[in-house]
Amino acid sequence: YTEGATALSARKFAAAYAGRALSTDFNAPATTATMHLKTLVGITPDSGISQTILNDAITVGADTYPSVGAGAQYIGKVYSTGANDFFDNVYNLDWLVFGLQIAGVNALATTGTKLPQTEPGVAVLKGAYITVLQQAVSNGFIAPGAWNSSELFGNPSDLKRNILNLGYYVWSLPVNQQLQSQREQRIAPIIRIAVKYAGAIQKSNVVVSINA
Questions:
Q1: Which residue spans within 71-203 are E strands per DSSP?
Q2: How confident is the model at residue 185, as a pLDDT?
Q3: Would you list the DSSP string of 39-88?
Q4: What is the rounded CA–CA span in Å between residue 38 and residue 195?
Q5: What letter does residue 153 receive in the DSSP assignment?
Q6: What angle, rounded to 10 degrees, do the helices at 7-21 and 87-109 form?
Q7: DSSP for residue 197
Q8: Which of 33, 37, 80, 109 would you call most buried, defined as having the most Cβ atoms within 10 angstroms of its Cβ?
Q9: How far is CA 4 from CA 7, 50, 130, in A?
Q10: 3-state secondary structure of 142
């Protein structure tokens, strides 16, 4: 909040923002959300934010809850900028990383005997990771799309095709190419994952063609 606003107002804004932003149910479909233009119930927009301050906030990547703009179009809406990345990207990625970690541990812990250090054994581990990736597609965090990065691994054609069709690609180093020292420590061959963000639409460009 701007100078002159109470510290209590600032804390309420922060709490309301965090409460809404952190309420995603990642196990349900189409639940991931951006904070841009969302209303925070019970929070008074900050009328001390001028257009200049808003522009500065946009530049540095600070989300605001302003009351400014022609027609006061920002009254009661969060204005979110991606200068330091969008909140939902950071939060969703944290969920994905933790989900993959848990899936990997559970795959090892729930196996009654062992996962052999063979291609079928690695496939079980990769299958656990794929389950999390499929959930990421379901909740709207990742989605099929074109792979535009210059970073390629595994089979580049498979990577691009899987990202285009599925939104994710999982590759593992063949077991027979693994370092003997890692094999002796019972470490799985390296598994690499590529995903494509679903992103979010927060602005639009419209062209109208008129024929008299």
A1: 168-172, 191-195
A2: 96
A3: --TTPPPBTT--HHHHHHHHHHT--B-B--SGGGTTTT--B---TT--HH
A4: 27
A5: -
A6: 50
A7: B
A8: 80
A9: 9, 14, 51
A10: strand
What is residue 72's predicted lDDT score, i.e. its pLDDT? 52
Residues of the chain with pLDDT under 70: 1-5, 69-74
Residue 73 pLDDT: 56
Check: CB of residue 87 under 8 Å from CB of residue 17: no
**Residue 172's beta-bridge partner residues?**
191
User: Tell me, what's the pLDDT at 108?
Assistant: 96
Using CA atoms in the order 184, 187, 190, 191, what is the torsion angle rounded to 10 degrees?
150
Q: Which residues of 37-76 are buried (b: 16+ CB within 10 A; e: fewer)?
A: ebebeebebbeebeeebbeebbeeeebbbbbbeeeeebeb
For 131, list phi and psi in degrees, rounded to 5: -60, -40
Q: How far is it, in rounded angstroms, from Cα 118 to Cα 183?
A: 10
DSSP state of 111: -
Determine contact, residues 118/175, Cβ cutoff 8 Å: yes
Give strand pairing partners of 185: none
Specify whether the CB–CB gap between 86 and 33 falls below 8 A. Answer: no
Q: How many CA atoms lie within 13 A of 99 on its CB side?
A: 19
